[in-house]
Amino acid sequence: MQIVCKLESIEDGGAIEARVDRDNQPSLNLAVCRHGDQVFAWHNICPHQGRALNFAPNRFLFTPEGQLMCAAHGAVFEADTGLCVGGPCRGASLRGVAVAVQNGEVILTADSETNDE
Ligand code: FES
To answer: Which of the two ends of the chain, N or C, has the fewest CB atoms closer than 10 A to its terminal CB?
Structure first.
């Protein structure tokens, strides 16, 4: 079981960065979004030009509707589906990493092994 972070470390409606080192695989640099007890993890790479979504360590932008906004050029993503719904890469998607919440911790699930490169 690979722990990503503690659920309580993510403000409800917010996001944090999480770096996850793994055996024999590249490290993951994730944007982990929380909606209540639900958590969604995305590779912290914008599909527009490949930049990180945040503008400073653990500082992400959100629209008033709770959508995640790339700090570089303003692409807007649904925090729960990763779909870009506005900005320069509309229709593209963030790449997801499968996570679950278990005993107050966000963990990578077995599916996450096949959902990244
Ligand atoms: S790199 Fe994210 S909108 Fe351009």
So the answer is: C
